[in-house]
Amino acid sequence: MEHNLTNEAGSNSASSSIPALRPVADSERIQALDVIRGFALIGIFFMNVEWFNRSFLDFGSGIPAHAKGLDWLATYFVNFFVAGKFWTIFSLLFGMGFAVMLTRSEETGRAFIRPYIRRILALAVFGILHTVLLWPGDILYSYAFTAAGLLIILFGQWKWILASMGGLALLSFIPGMNSIWAVVSGIGFMGLIALFIRNEKQVTVFGKKFPLFSVIVAAVTVLMLIAAIASWLVPAMKEARNPLTGGSAAFFVIALLSVKFHQPAEARFWRAGALIYSLPFAIGVVFGMIAYQKPLSNVFNSPEAVKLAAEKMKIKKAEELAEKVAKESGKVVPKKDDKKDDKKEAKTEEQKKLERDADTINRITENQEKIAKDVQVLTKGSYVDVVKHRWEEFIDGPFNASGQAFSAIALFLMGVWFVRAKIITNAVANLGLFRQIALFGLPIGWGLSLFASSILVSHTPGVSGDGWQLTQMLLNLGNLPACLAYVSIIVLMVNSNSIFSKIRVLAPFGRMALTNYLTQSLVQASFFYGWGLGNFGMGRAQQLGFAICVICMQVLFSHWWLGRFRYGPMEWVWRAITYWQFPAMKIATPELKPQIG
């Protein structure tokens, strides 16, 4: 793999004489990024506040059936015009921040890798503490994995990529460490992206030259296509038809596009990001449309499935009890997989469907039980009870958050392109581009959201054929153009001479994004949970009113704080760890005017 994006300042073997990377000075800040960050934080609060009033395990079910009037309208507004649009903005901003730091290190010859690794590790610790101490919907821990993935894409060497995958794969066999496979898959995924972005090698096939990445993907496409054809011909492979068919189609598209759009090299960031984000959802729309054509059905309407589910649950609980007793007595209970039955008869398709429905019923039932337990702890438990509960959830899958990196990396890559192509760093010269993005992105993003909402706005677990899959795929597909449109509109407002330029008032709020994000969680947990003021279950419209009040106070506090200090409290800690020095905190002569720069 070629390393055309690396530099000596970023290598681990950099000379100790190379000056360390320092925190960015106020004069070097890009004001539009601070404003966008503040705007994104508002949307994040609007979305998150609902999940301080509901169990996070109920996420993805749409508008609650009991929502009426203003509560229904508030939920509709957030679900279709906010949710999904603002975490994508946050992801885009993280990629921009990475690129700004990298660009500064290249321009000044300062070291980059070690400071950024410290930055990632600090972010991971913040995320874990946020998850366990306050709220399970944290995004910082996931971003730490994504930021690590970006390092692999830009600086990773194949020998270390393969070695790390092998080592982690061995660790996954340790009991309770199954979720580490998500990390292994993520590293491999980042390696493939690196191959596309950084490798210039050409391979001759049938007398024509193609990029190495395209040839590898084409080979995978052929293998998957053979397996997909076999799945349609062999009844025993029926369950693999959809993933194999969809996978082969996806790899074919990737191979085709990677040949056509391999050059110019600087455009690979946004092209890879757009494809990685959009392609899975585009394929999901196709399968969603197919699923929508099937008759409406509910697994709970099948007496046979309900009866089988009860039997399977009874056996499962008996096995769990036996395992618990055996552990307490020091004995070993053979696993279910170890009990062989050579006399098993082949099951009919009807029997297989019945078992799948029964398993679905049990998964839904178990999740409802977990939701009930979650709500009980949040409304009645002490703070210690909540922390213990969150810790148990986190330990159950400590690396599950790495799965978010698969979609977030797409936005990170696009954010890198915005900076390296000087689109955002020289926004005034690119206002025409931002107008075009807003002009096309907003109608497409909102149009897909409105179309999705016309199909379905809520979902009952266990129901199929209702169009929920199609709704979710359309929503996710529309998030990217809407996100880019929102960012473009903010940039245009910041650089206008009209009253809209007053949006710069959000700049200090955005400069203290980490502090304000964590403070929002602290305020919400204290206000809604049982160990605090106990307002859990507040109506959705009231939730938005609460969020607006807190945001207004945070904006005012951010202006006051940054008139006296250079950084927000958590930003100062993060910078101290990143640059391994204590940045100057206090401003010598406090500014009493509003901080909008």
Automatic annotation (TrEMBL):
Pfam family name, one: DUF418
Record carries keyword Calcium: no
Keywords: Membrane, Transmembrane, Transmembrane helix
Residue ranges of domain DUF418 in the record: 419-581
Transmembrane portions of the chain: 35-52, 73-96, 116-135, 140-160, 180-198, 210-232, 274-292, 405-425, 437-457, 477-494, 514-532, 544-562
Region Disordered, annotated ranges: 332-354
Keyword check for Membrane: yes
Matching InterPro entries: Bact_Transport_Assoc, DUF418
Protein name per its UniProtKB record: DUF418 domain-containing protein
Gene source species: Undibacterium fentianense
